[in-house]
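Lab notebook, bench 4. We co-purified these components, and the gel suggests they stay together. Before we commit to crystallization screens, I want a quick structural picture of the whole thing.
Request: model the full complex, all chains together.
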Amino acid sequence: MLNLTSLKNKWIVITGASSGFGRAAAIAFASRGACLFLGARRIDLLNETAQLALKTGATAAIASSLDVSSTSDVERFADRLMKYTSDVQVLINNAGGALGVDTVLEGKDSDWETMLQTNVLGLLRVSRRIIPMMLNTTGANVINVGSIAGRIAYEGGSVYCGAKAAELQITKALRLELCGTPIRVTSLDPGMAETNFSVVRYKGNLNKAAAVYQGVKPLCAEDIAETMLWIAERPPHVCIDELVIKPVAQAAPYKVARNL
Ligand code: NDP
Ligand code: 8X3
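Here is the predicted assembly.
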């Protein structure tokens, strides 16, 4: 019989929990009776996530405003977490996303900076503060959310692909650096999933965002949340180093079978 890692009453830190994967993850971990410490910038939506998590069975659900692009904000977030616990079971570095589909020649500094700040530097800042709270925790797991974009480049995706490639390499380095501790380190790399991702990428253009998923059944946030739960619940000696998950209709970022 498998000695699964119990999440009951354990602290789970999720960045980007106001929407999409992060919100679905909060609800999935809540179903195991975990304690949730949730971060994102939109505090109203984050509070909604916390309320849903409590209704689903979370032992605690704290919504704490967080902008991962600011070192001082990450410090404040971590200091607040320490008022509740010094022992974190799971860190889900999920905050991030893409901005625009410009080619390199068309690219905007502000889009580039935001993508690198959130997907790369944000993950580093949060990891630096939270991982020390996991060093003595049996079956602890860092789950970094990458993307198939970090493995295969596509036109219009240069900086996002670069940012997620950086996520994958940072995760691999972290795995090596933490070898000898109980901490498991995972890069979870999804393909197309229908969340708010494309609305953000297309800067609020709902038609362009909807077109991304036209004629195809994409992944949904719950598919990813269930996968995160599966990763974290493996027995403490089992580390899922890398996991790529895509809709069956998507063989590569631009190889999508559509029934139009
Ligand atoms: P959503 O847009 O639905 O969610 C993104 C989350 O990130 C929101 O909660 C947002 O919260 C948060 N976020 C963004 N910037 C910051 C910031 N500066 N500080 C704190 N939180 C921030 O998209 P997804 O759920 O799809 O995206 C989650 C992750 O999954 C991202 O890293 C994305 O790159 C990745 N991904 C998505 C795929 C997809 O097809 N959907 C596929 C592969 C990977 P707020 O705005 O309130 O701060
Ligand atoms: C999002 C998936 O294929 O749009 O990370 O880059 S993709």
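The longest helix spans residues 109-130. Worth comparing against the SEC data before the next meeting. Residues 15-22, 40-42, 45, 66-69, 94-97, 118-119, 122, 145, 147, 190, 192-193, 195-197, 200 surround NDP (ligand 1) (CB under 6 Å).
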